[in-house]
Amino acid sequence: MLQLCLIGIGTGNPKHLTQEAVEAIRAQDLILIPHKGAGKDDLAGLRQAICAEVLTGVAHPPKIVEFDLPVRDPATADYRQRVDNWHDAIAEVWQATLAAHLPEGGQAGFLVWGDPSLYDSTMRIAERLKTRMEMQMRVIPGITSIQALTAAHGVPLNHIGAPVQITTGRRLRDTGWPMGCDTLVIMLDGECSFQSIAAPERVMIHWSAYAGMANEINIAGRLSEVQEEILATRARARAEHGWIMDIYLLERLG
User: Fold this and answer.
1) β-strands 2-8, 106-112: how paired?
2) 8-30 confidence digits (pLDDT tens)
3) To 10 degrees, what angle do helices 122-130 and 79-101 make?
4) Checking CA distances to 1, which of 113, 212, 237, 249 falls within 20 to 30 Å?
5) Cβ distance 111 to 47 under 8 Å?
6) Which residues in the chain are classed under CATH 3.40.1010.10?
7) Alpha-helical runs (H) found in 67-220
């Protein structure tokens, strides 16, 4: 039987690895690392660097195999259908790669950015595999980009006794600020949706790019005062690295 281990590795800093994650990486027969296409080789490289550090001195290290991640089809109009089709395609690649490198079964690990529970579909894709092959799944938690964000800025996630909503840039842009919550964490925002917020002078933003990594960038202040700085900084960072991961915390003031 295949034992599939989804290992949360934090946000690219090897020091984010828990002892449990280190032990899990060392225990695998196979580690699979996705290639996300041109301009995102850094992500595969960081996973390789983490493996190299963790596996130094290990007598029987796992085999490390990179695979090309399928590209989401932009032709399908419905967003959910595009995602479902994409996940099906990824599951097919996983199945073929696992069959090629572990034909008799064994332990295979995926290194998941941040934590597998938070805006990551690795567990959903793994569930698809259960309908295709005999397997068991284990999940190792990891430090999230939210933790890296709040630590970088030295701010708590919530006000005393108050709720926090974690949502996406798409939802902020399409539906506005959700009712009943004065603190938002915005993830997966490729279009800088904070530009759509009314009364930006009454909103505090804590923004981080590459949170937790060596090239981390942090900007904080009233949205009306730092919005243009964030936009310019983000554009420069993306041009320099070819990709960007950013996240931000929004707080209504007064």
Assistant:
1) parallel
2) 999 888 899 999 999 999 999 99
3) 60
4) 113
5) yes
6) 2-140
7) 79-101, 122-130, 145-153, 169-175
Supply the pTM of this predicted model. Answer: 0.89
Superfamily the domain 145-252 falls into: Tetrapyrrole methylase, C-terminal domain (3.30.950.10)
Q: What is the pLDDT along the chain (254 residues), one digit of tens a residue?
A: 899 999 999 988 889 999 999 999 999 999 999 987 665 567 888 899 999 999 999 999 999 999 998 888 776 668 888 889 999 999 999 999 999 999 999 999 999 999 999 999 999 999 999 888 889 999 999 999 999 999 999 999 999 999 999 999 999 999 999 999 999 999 999 999 999 999 999 999 999 999 999 899 999 999 999 999 999 999 999 999 888 999 999 999 97
Contact 202, 227 (CB under 8 A): no
Contact 93, 70 (CB under 8 A): yes
Q: Which two tokens stand for residue 84?
A: 């479902």
User: What are the distances in angstroms from CA 156 to CA 151, 183, 205?
Assistant: 8, 11, 13
CA angle 10, 13, 17 (to 5 degrees): 50
Q: Which residues contact 98 (CB under 8 A, 6 or more apart)?
A: 2, 30, 32, 108, 133
d(CA 159, CA 249): 12
- Residue extent(s) of CATH 3.30.950.10 domains in the chain: 145-252
For residue range 75-120, list pLDDT tens digits in order.
666 888 888 999 999 999 999 999 999 999 999 999 999 999 999 9
**Could you tell me which residues come within 8 angstroms of residue 155 by beta carbon, excluding any fewer than 6 positions away?**
206, 249
